[in-house]
Amino acid sequence: xxxxxxxxxxxxxxxxxxxxxxxxxxxxxxxxxxxxxxxxxxxxxxxxxxxxxxxxxxxxxxxxxxxxxxxxxxxxxxxxxxxxxxxxxxxxxxxxxxxxxxxxxxxxxxxxxxxxxxxxxxxxxxxxxxxxxxxxxxxxxxxxxxxxxxxxxxxxxxxxxxxxxxxxxxxxxxxxxxxxxxxxxxxxxxxxxxxxxxxxxxxxxxxxxxxxxxxxxxxxxxxxxxxxxxxxxxxxxxxxxxxxxxxxxxxxxxxxxxxxxxxxxxxxxxxxxxxxxxxxxxxxxxxxxxxxxxxxxxxxxxxxxxxxxxxxxxxxxxxxxxxxxxxxx
Length: 329
Description:
Four Helix Bundle (Hemerythrin (Met), subunit A); 10 helices; single chain; 2 domains; CATH 3.100.10.20; 49% helix
């Protein structure tokens, strides 16, 4: 099974025959190319055109993070599954306001359902969250009646505000989490959320690459020259299921604490040791399997990302109504 590789040391990434070599001043590590799904770069890595051509040929994406641990961008090989038909139909669904809004609503409908499901899990464990669950479910009922993307995003923002206000109740650490702040994160919980959300985003981007979808044509988020906005759309569904549940586990097991961060130049930065813990747990989470109700077989969490892309592709090409993934366990 292909896997993700995470590079922290400074050095060089090279090609040698049919392998990748991660080389620094002390060691050289060989990786068979058929083992690689995607590469995450957290250190300063140099490479040449020979290597980039090799990555192109083997459909390997590379995601870059800066010194502060923030996502910078991706090396995205030329699409190997190009389809003019899908590209045009995806664009038509974006340009047609009603078609775009229909898909955008489904992203938020599914994401908010998964958020509510998370709270209901802790409510069943004896943590009183009935009021917040009712507030979220009340807002969810408004989703189908909105008439604009802006109104939809407003509902989503209010749902998340209520959701984040509950975290202090079921996380067994003094996180003092008041609100979501991104640019830059103002405290260690916001920094943790931003880091894990970037992992969800890049995982989604890699899975989009293996479909006919164009990652720059989105429906909920506005397309931009500097981002793969469809990845932002689909990520909304998996943040509560994969990202948030991972955060709850890391914090409640004290695998990540405020000691896992340092403050530097008004930035709250994850230590490399903490990043490695998170990445290991994130990989393990993506490998876990569930019994898929419709497919009637076990699929991994990572596979759920790809299946979501396939459903959206069928929606834009075959008029098969897209239904976002909702957790049932």
